[in-house]
Amino acid sequence: MTLHRISNWNLYRMKRGALRRRAKDISLVFVVLVCATLVLWSWDTTPSSAFLPPDSHFLKLEPGEPNEILQLSNWNLYRMKRGALRRRAKDISLVFVVLVCATLVLWSWDTTPSSAFLPPDSHFLKLEPEEKVERIPTTLNTETKDSYSSATPFVNKDQSKEDQTDNKDKKEEEEEEKEEKQVAKVTDSETNQGKTSTIEEEQAEREVTVSEPKYQKTLTSKENKLEQVKEEVAAGEVEAKTTHIKNTNSDPEKKTLATDGERTEQHIAKKDDDSSSTARITNQGRESFLYIFGVMMGENILGVFIISLACNYAKGKWVVDKHRPLYSGSRCKQWLASMWACRLMQRTDFAFERLRWQPKDCSMEEFEGSKFLKRMQDKTLAFVGDSLGRQQFQSMMCMITGGKERLDVLDVGPEFGFITPQGGGRPNGWAYRFPETNTTVLYHWSSTLCDIEPLNISDPLTEHAMHLDRPPAFLRQYLHKINVLIMNTGHHWNRGKLNGNRWVMHLNGAPNTNKKLAALGNAKNFTIHSTVSWVSSQLPNHPGLKAFYRSLSPRHFVGGEWNTGGSCNNTTPMSIGKEVLQEESSDYSAGHAVKGTGVKLLDITALSHIRDEGHISRFSISASKGVQDCLHWCLPGVPDTWNEILFAMI
Fold it and tell me: Is the pTM above the cut of 0.70?
């Protein structure tokens, strides 16, 4: 892609230079014309009047000479002088005609003397749009430059308090397994209680104004030439096939995916100026705007200037889409943990499932499992991070399969070291392979995104070294097998987690003695920078690798933490806002970490912040009294949008 951009830029510079030299050719012709005209007007002896005698040779009337002879001689000389002036005017007219013709030839000639060496337009390489990541600050920005070095690892101000409870990961695992066993006892009739009635759906749709972009794609006759150039530059990318979900049943959960050929969209937005045009090109989720400016004379194109602008998917708004959700939360049991399937809980309002993210000034291709698998053929996509990364992984599996059971999908966890430990505990990851395209999707648990190793393997109660300057051992061992990597961390950087898991921060292979890194916010930021920099340094060794760092998923606890009465009772979509227009990421440390590296930012913080109604909240089946989950999301839900943006950026 980079080679294509460089080649096209060089060709563009050659074209621009040729246009400038062509203008110089024409200017030179005009200069010669003006100079020749001035010379002809100021030259007393033009080619047609050189034979004339000078004025001093005219006869003078002397006293006593016959007047008739003198008058006759002067009259003949006057006629000769007048004829010479007429011939001089013809000379000048001839020069004008020749130069005007030469000018017209230069303007209409495709290969002027100064541009004959240029390749034809058909030889231009395909333009690959460049994904541009814009960093975005706003009133929601809770991690600024001033607070960058503080110990605050979370988004909300009330989240700056460190969790002092000793809540171990093992205890969380036991609770999750307990939830799964309890949900397994729920009958199908109980699951139907969570379905939204028709009245509730209509009411939810009235709560939010549907805003769909409209595009014009009819070009004027004068733009046909420019359209041909666009087709050559795009090389087949102008026609974008976009699949939509067909509603084949009154039940909003029963949907099938349309085929590639059923829906084709080509968005062309044109300007009023006939000499310029703007093309919106969507191809396999990669979208950019090609601003094409053409210099025309009559029906001939003298030059084309192309400017490509990438889409910023972090800016936009939430809109209601009756085709959502992309899969059924009650039927995706093969991939979706029951503790995150809100359709299996006591929740009865599901308006949050019908929202779709609409980026500003551009659109995203509809996600379809078959397209994703084709795009990722013979490739591996890996999520590495905490439980929010696991949610994104399970969301992706449900989106690929449409929430349907797939017995042909292979469990290839052992290939990546994912083995269930003795005693029935969970493995440290999952990996599944779709045999039709040899596509592998996996998740590896790494809550702090750094290497953690026990200090004494033989002691089950030993402390663990938390190496802030080392990437996870999984990445060092299996990075060569990964084609798309998505990393995240954040919510485990608190004293409760560190003390409960007996994690001790290490630096350079020894216990940390740096006082600045003793603050957990600084330690977290240091680790993110360290791991992102290491992955970026490995990109030249793995040309097929695309790496992303996903920004922080916001929490919405109000009135306390998860264990001190914090709640998130709102169930109305977009009650705190629906649009994001900021220019810098709300997760400052994430945006700062990827700056200047080959790792791209998957910025989801701001767009997730205005979706506080999408959390599991108080609806968990096994939730203790007074305990709410305002960190994890209901699925289907907000993490599906993270994957849609990822699909567009791959």
Answer: no
